[in-house]
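Exam revision sheet. Question 4 asks you to relate a sequence to its structure. Input first:
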Amino acid sequence: MIAALAVVTAGLLAFHRAVPNSVGRAGSLLESFLPWLGLVVVVLFGAALLRRSATALAALLLPVAAWTYLFGGLVLPGAGPGGHGLVVVQHNVSDENPDPAGTARALADARPDLVALQELVPRALPVYERTLAPHYPYHAVRGTVGLWSRYPLTDARLLDIKPRGITAAWNRGLRAVVRTPHGDIAAYVAHLPSVRVRASGLASSWRDESAGLLGEAIAAEDLGTVILLGDLNGTVDDRGLAPVTSRMNVPERGFALSFPAALPLARIDQVMARSATVGRIRALPATGSDHLPVAARISLG
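Answer key, structure tokens:
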């Protein structure tokens, strides 16, 4: 039994793309929590030791190898900073955040070059603007997303990633050019629609449609170097984000689980780049949000 479960676990890890999405988006649901299959391996390993089963222990080599291939690199030490780069922070600050000023100060304490925020509401926006202004003289806000920068921002505009089924006012995308000392970079800030886990499976159709629109916008971007900061409501393994992840580099090191803040189970807050490398990503201490902030260094060459 243990050996059979080990083989099944290895199969889910190695062939997760083969799990169909046609019913309840089961494939996306599995991929959202794929790294946690490592805990299944640990439990099976303990059971195999208790039973002193050589067959089960041998079978467990399969899921260990599959997990290591997929995620082992994330736990390795990152290379030291080299070349030109930017430190960035991404945070869904929550529209119910009771302490926007404290949240802004905490983000500035990480000393990033860029800060991307989502769920900016009218009552809190002036607080973020006032608190971040001493460190970030340039900023752009469109709808409920914003970007703060140490470097000048130009050509800021609304990015339309609204799914057809949403009829209410909904502006959750921003594109701007960051004029860094190392050249102009297109910066995208996005907040994709939420997903829900229901008895029928994963409800993610709006998120998937919005991801498609975001991917098309990035593909059409004229500037060579692009960075994406956002609450994408999906992990980098989730095929629902494939229109984006197929065009971008994802972090090379770190898990940086960001949601929910009280017991982080997945990283749905993302930092990605095109024609640049995202090094180690890490979660920052909790703020007044239900998400944890994440920070990463992007090497520009």
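Marking note for examiners. The mean pLDDT is 95.
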